[in-house]
Design goal:
mainly beta, Immunoglobulin-like, five-stranded antiparallel β-sheet, about 5% helix
């Protein structure tokens, strides 16, 4: 019996947590402290905070991965959720390991905007596009994150002559088309942008660099 209890404890999943980007929300965990046996499989359940019954996530029932996509199950973004995982190995089942409470609207990370650069002779024109959520409109297009948050765009310019690391903030606001003027011809400039959520005081990572020479 003791051996079984040891095995139960040693295969119990560790560090169960939600990770979320633009409401694409996945549950992650690490294997227990036993060197993971090849036949260890995992079972995932979820529920809304306050509900008494757990729901099985069928696609993550008896899987070998350490990640489970719960985007669809957490689509009511204002609700708090829990996830939990148990492991089985050699016919022995561990206890459940519980995640912290996860509320998508408060905790999802917002991605950077998509940036397109169009340049004219002494200026750069940028087109910015908000990141998209995984949720679809009736017509099939993806709902942008601006539907859920008041988003600002922060645009930075890097003058490659001066310093690779120096990013000067040249714009902050909601416009989707921005003109940066009075630039020097013959100089290479790179643009990066972030999405900023004032209400949560949270910024995205930088977008990938878009470079242009005037």
């Amino acid at each position: 019996v003791l051996e079984n209890q040891d095995l139960k404890d040693s295969i119990k999943p560790q560090n169960v947590e939600f990770r979320s980007l633009n409401f694409n929300s996945t549950l992650h965990w690490q294997p227990g402290r036993a060197r993971e046996a090849r036949d260890t499989v995992y079972f995932v359940q979820y529920k809304v905070y306050g509900q008494s019954t757990w729901q099985n996530k069928d696609e993550c029932w008896g899987i070998q991965n350490h990640v489970c996509d719960l985007t669809k199950e957490t689509s009511d973004i204002q609700e708090p959720y829990y996830g939990r995982v148990k492991a089985a190995s050699a016919g022995i089942y561990s206890d459940w390991s519980l995640s912290c409470r996860f509320t998508p609207w408060q905790e999802t990370m917002i991605g950077p905007p998509m940036v397109t650069v169009v340049h004219s002779n002494k200026s750069i024109i940028l087109k910015l596009q908000a990141p998209r959520s995984p949720y679809k409109r009736k017509r099939g297009s993806m709902v942008p994150m601006t539907n859920y948050y008041d988003l600002l765009y922060q645009v930075f310019i890097i003058n490659n002559l001066l310093d690779e690391q120096h990013r000067a903030l040249v714009y902050e606001g909601k416009d989707k088309v921005i003109k940066i003027e009075d630039l020097r011809p013959g100089v290479s400039y790179c643009i990066v942008a972030k999405t900023y959520v004032p209400m949560l005081d949270r910024s995205s990572a930088y977008s990938s660099r878009q470079c242009t020479m005037l």
